[in-house]
Amino acid sequence: MLPWKQPSSSPGAVESRARRMTAGQRFYFVEEDGPVALALAPSLLKPDLAYDRLELGVYSRLRSYPGGRFLGLQKHIQRTDLSQRLVAIPHRLDHDELRRSIQKATDDYESEATFVRFDLLSHPARAFGTESTTLICITPFTPVPSEYLAEGVGVLFSDLVRDTPLAKRAAFVQERGGYSSGGQDAYERLLISPEQTILECSSSNFFGLIGGRLRCTGEGALLGVTQRFCILLAQELGLTIDERGVNLAELEQLEEAFLTSSSRGVVPIVRIQGRTIANGRPGPWTERLRRAYDDFAEREAKLAWPF
What we know:
- This protein has 2 domains: about 5-140, 2-Layer Sandwich (D-amino Acid Aminotransferase, Chain A, domain 1), CATH 3.30.470.10; about 145-300, Alpha-Beta Barrel (D-amino Acid Aminotransferase, Chain A, domain 2).
- The chain has helices spanning about 45-50, 75-85, 95-110, 145-150, 170-175, 225-235, 285-300, and strands at about 5, 25-30, 35-40, 60-65, 70, 115-120, 135-140, 155, 190, 195-200, 205-210, 215, 240, 245, 255-260, 265-270, 275, 300-305.
- The protein contains 7 helices and 18 strands.
- By secondary structure, the chain is of the alpha+beta class.
């Protein structure tokens, strides 16, 4: 007997049983008539266990803002389309169905803000009784701790490698599982190229300020949606962008560093592998950019649907 309950698929409705699930994650399959909630048995209430039963493909993750709004959702969808092509998944996302389902599921969650992950599976989720290849997972939004933003975080090296750097593969989430956050001093893990250049963090993009120029990796790393927004904002603030990335031999020259992600925004980095950056405090450019991004997100976030 499978540890799941087959949901009803009444047209246009998110199943009310989703409200009886735990206060944590909720899963929905995108069907032609809208999102259908998956009522998991207790043995699968941890998200990773549910994903383990699926044939994973590519995904994206972002947060919602008050009013059920999203920043850059279309860019997330377009990056998922690119990922789908790069890993040769034979089917594509239906953009309108996905947008309608995300909006409905988010509104049903009845929270000021959430994390939303959507997956394009490599094969239909038949283990859960559906032919759907698109999965949505909604979890409560948890902000970056205020002390992390005020004091900065530390990041560490890793031996993680993306086999297809421009594709956001869901399997990479499992691969980086052993490098989960160790708190403020081990907040993220860095991916390093064979040439000893910092490519990105395991779930975010890396920026470093050297000689008044903002350095980020332009090739060989996953293109971040928030990364692109922050590049534009940094240019508006007067910074010059340099896409050479930061080599490990240049760590002593770092004046500031920070990471960016759609779920966390801008987070200052003050230590790399235990080595303190500059005076060990978040730098002025990082703070300006963090405030500029937060203002931009609140101003520009839009409903997923209508689009």
